[in-house]
Amino acid sequence: MPVGKIIKSLSGFYYVLCEGEVYQCRGRGNFRKKKVTPLVGDLVEFKAENKKEGYILSIENRKNELVRPPISNVDQALIVTSAVHPNFNALLLDRFLVLVEEKRIEPFIVISKVDQLDEQQMEVMESYKTLYEKIGYPVILSAVDDTEAMDQIQSHLAGRTTVIAGQSGVGKSSLLNSIDPRLSIDTDEISESLGRGKHTTRHVELYEIAEGLVADTPGFSSLEFGELELDQLPECFPEFVEVQNDCKFRGCLHHKEPKCAVKSAVENGEISDQRYEHYLQFLNEIQNRKPRY
């Protein structure tokens, strides 16, 4: 049986890409009995008499799975944040990074709209670029019609399945359209009254872009740490992981514990005090999370 990848799910049909051709398939009834839902990104075994009448027979094991957006087997996340309109928000960026790290998905960061900055503002963005690159995250500063930035982004996309994430209005769909104008993904002007964009992306679909597959999705519609446990949070900060073996206590949460290597690294400037402050906010949020039954 051929194996393909689901690239779109719509109205009960699954569109499976196999050797450059797309087959419209339905899921077998036993998926419903087992309460298994095929996801965009799934590798599936299928049978098709023609391109319009196919059936998914089995789903291969997933290496990861996101709930919102519902997608599986993601290699990396392109996190788009804007320099202005809406203004750069380091706390929100760190929240996205934690959510991505939790799923063991590699992030890379694009800061858009840098052409709208003055010299002083540009220096601030450059300093953030340096900070996140030191942690190990690739960062691309992007402007309108910036072919060099687009080339860099495309090189990251090649051969990988990428989910695109970021708050509304930062230019996610515009970015994809500029990489591949054939897409013509709907984009709306930012709602000035709200200071954020309208949701224009309504279903999950993998587009073949720059020799890779990119999900243009409604983004991470939930930015809450619903599944993340306290002891997992430090693992989502790579710069903490580098030094935490030197903490006096195993399972150190880097908060009130004595002889904490992370707190020492913050004090001597090896770890960003802003990143550490964000970590403490997230820690507090998880500690005060209402239990779900």
Which descriptors apply to this entry?
3 domains, single chain, 293 residues, RNA-binding, 8 helices, five-stranded mixed β-barrel, alpha/beta, Rossmann fold, Ribonucleotide Reductase Protein R1, domain 1
Can you give a write-up of this model?
This protein folds into three domains: 58 residues, OB fold (Dihydrolipoamide Acetyltransferase, E2P), CATH 2.40.50.140; 146 residues, Rossmann fold, CATH 3.40.50; 58 residues, Probable gtpase engc, domain 3 (Ribonucleotide Reductase Protein R1, domain 1, Orthogonal Bundle), CATH 1.10.40.50. The protein is built from eight helices and 13 strands. The strands form three sheets. It has a six-stranded mixed sheet with strand order 10-9-8-11-13-12, with helices on both faces. A five-stranded mixed β-barrel has the order 1-2-3-5-4. The longest helix has 17 residues. The two termini are 42 Å apart. GO terms for molecular function: GTP binding; GTPase activity; metal ion binding; rRNA binding.
